[in-house]
Amino acid sequence: MATVLRGQVPKGVGPDPVPSTAAEAVRAGRRRADALDPNGAIDLLRAALELDPGHHGAATELALVLFDTGRKSDALATLKGFLRSNPRSAEARLTLVRCLLRTQDFEGAIAECRTCMQHRPNWDAPHQPLITALCRIRRAEEAKEVLHDLDRFSPDPRRRATLSQLIDRSA
Fold first, then answer.
1. Which long-range contacts (CB under 8 A, 24 or more apart) does 31-35 make?
2. Vertex 100 angle, CA 126 and 6, to 5°
3. DSSP readout, 72-125?
4. pLDDT tens per residue across span 21-71
C-alpha cells in the first residue's frame, strides 16, 4: 500500500474541484478513500457534513475512513454525535453497530441494534449483527429468539442455516 502524506495527490488521481454540495463532497471523499488518500477523504467528508449536517452518507463514510485508519474513538464519536442530531438514521446506527462489534463492545452493539429495530421494526439488517453480538457473549437463547423474529418477516433458508450454526457454536 502506498503511503500518502496529507496534501499529496496519489498518482493517477487528479485534484477534486471544490465541492458545492454535500453529495459532491461525499463522492469526492469516496474517490479519495478508494485512491488510498484517507486524509483527503476525511477532509472532504468533514466538508460534506459542514455543508449538510444531516447527510447520513457523509457521517457513515467519514466514520468508516476514520475507523479503518485506526482512529476508532473519532469514528465512534462521529457516529454518536451524528445520531444525537439524527436519532432515526438507521444506516448511521447500523454503521455504529459494525464499529462496536469490531471493537468488541458487544453490549453496546446489542443496545444499538435494538434501538435500530425500534425505529425500523421490519428491517432485517440489524438482526444479523444482533445475533452475532449475542453469540459472542454466549446469549444463545436470546439469539435464537432474534432469529425466529427475523424468519417471521424475512425468511431466508441459507441465512437461517448460517446463523443457526453460529448460535449452536456459542451455546
1. 33/61, 33/65, 35/10
2. 120
3. HHHHHHHHHHHHHH-TT-HHHHHHHHHHHHHTT-HHHHHHHHHHHHHHSTT-ST
4. 888 888 888 888 888 889 999 999 999 999 999 999 999 999 999 999 999
Using CA atoms, how far residue 19 sits from 34, 46, 88, in Å, is: 18, 12, 27
Residues 6+ positions from 48 with CB-CB distance below 8 Å: 19, 22, 23, 25, 26, 29, 55, 57, 58, 62
Confidence of residue 160 (pLDDT cuts 50, 70, 90): very high
pTM of the model: 0.82
Q: Is the pLDDT of residue 139 over 70?
A: yes
Contacts of 1 (CB under 8 A, 6+ apart): 36
Give the percent of the chain with pLDDT over 70: 89
- R_g of the chain, CA atoms, integer Å: 18
Interval 103-129: pLDDT, tens: 999 999 999 999 999 999 889 999 999
Which residues does 51 contact at the CB level (< 8 Å), separation at least 6? 19, 20, 21, 22, 25
Q: CA 123 to CA 167: how far, in whole Å?
A: 21
**What values do phi and psi take at 117, rounded to 5?**
-70, -30
